[in-house]
Protein 1
Amino acid sequence: MKKKKFTYTYSHIDVLMADPIGPLSHTKREAQLELINACLRSIEQNPNPTLDQWEIISDVVNFMETLLEMGEVQDPDDLIGDAVAALAKAGNRHIEQNVPIRFDGKDLSTIRGVIEDYAMVGEHLSARTMITAHRLT
């Protein structure tokens, strides 16, 4: 089987051309949040949520972790660390017990908190910062 070649969603040119002051467009941010929230709803309610949906939620958490490492956000309560643990717990339970991928109540609340933070960050950080973080994630 041929290994799939990794490609970036954004190029270096995208970083350079992105607004260094203003946020990503409202349309783009809303489309991202719509997809993220649909995936979380599916994990919460769908009898058989997909791993792709879990990966999108994981991408949000990883993205926030990248912003933390870049010094763009603060996380004094370690919400991002708790979200990483929640993702790992849900993934391990799915693999070990062969059950649909799910978050327990506390972990679901943690994931929601990170998604809310992601939405807020998207309104305030520049498009250039967001695209740079996306490339680093």
Protein 2
Amino acid sequence: MSDKSVKITPEIADAEIEEWLDVKKVRPSTRETNKDSIENMKDAVVEGILRVNENKTLTHFLLEPVGEEKKITELTYKTRLNDRMKIPYMKGIKSDDVFGMLNGTIAALTTTPREVIMAMDTEDKRLAQAIAVFFI
């Protein structure tokens, strides 16, 4: 369920995502390289699909719920991630498997089973990948 009841202007969305990037200490060169991902995130904030929380975690309101038994309608992304946190989600993924690494990173960021991440709708996955690039 998106947070469409809250109206966010493009200017506020821009400020929120820029502040999130500042908290993450994302360098200008990395921002430039990933400007499409940043724009995707800003658009999602305006549309009510992504929310920057006070503690700088991100809540992603899924367009299509996922999961067999328990439908998952939102994911919350951590602010920080280290290798120790990633290990359980990266088992069996080869280092040259880019999609597998992205799925594992998204799973670790959201503490969600990788199989659930792999079942996400393409639009939801596009936003998840835009967020994950800042943790690889």
